[in-house]
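User: I'll paste a sequence; please echo it back and then give the predicted structure.

Assistant: Echoing your sequence first, then the prediction.
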Amino acid sequence: MKRKGLTAMLRFFFNKPDPAVRSLYDRAVAQARLPVFYQKFGVPDTLEGRFDMVVFHVSPLIDRLRDETGAISRKGQDLFDTFVDDMEQNLRAMGVGDLTVPKRMKKFGAAFYGRFNAYRKAGADSNVLAATIARNLLGEEERATTPQARALAAYYLAVVEAAKSADDPIGDFVYPDVTAFVPRSGATQTVEAAL
């Protein structure tokens, strides 16, 4: 048995994440799958679009789960590992072969880190965040000034704030009501005023 396979098997049997972390991940996935993101915000309803929405919802939580030194805590690592395990299981469920899974997972990992770091770097700058969202979620950086990109930026900042204010970011965290951020026809000024 190859070393990677043995490591994955040992992690599967002996390093199960906290059930509360799994519950948090499941809530992130449920939030990412809400039809409103695809119907009202213009996120493509594709495999890539859904992947990007999960990353979008998990990233601020992993970022929040840092220890006093600023390093990702064990719970943050567990949340990331849960994400990775879920992506791998999804690939296998879609019939991706054993030889192809590691290559696809490497691409998923690179995509996750790229997006995670881009969201983190944007910080609270709503213009940079809207450009990042337009590039990653909407597929066109030119859409950075659209009501959808700006509304998603406002929503993301609300998620970050909710994660910061949760006493227990795993058990107490609740996603903000996304319907409060839906861009309305002809209401661009309202969305921009919220930023």
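Confidence is low (pLDDT under 50) at residues 186-195. The chain has nine helices and no strands.
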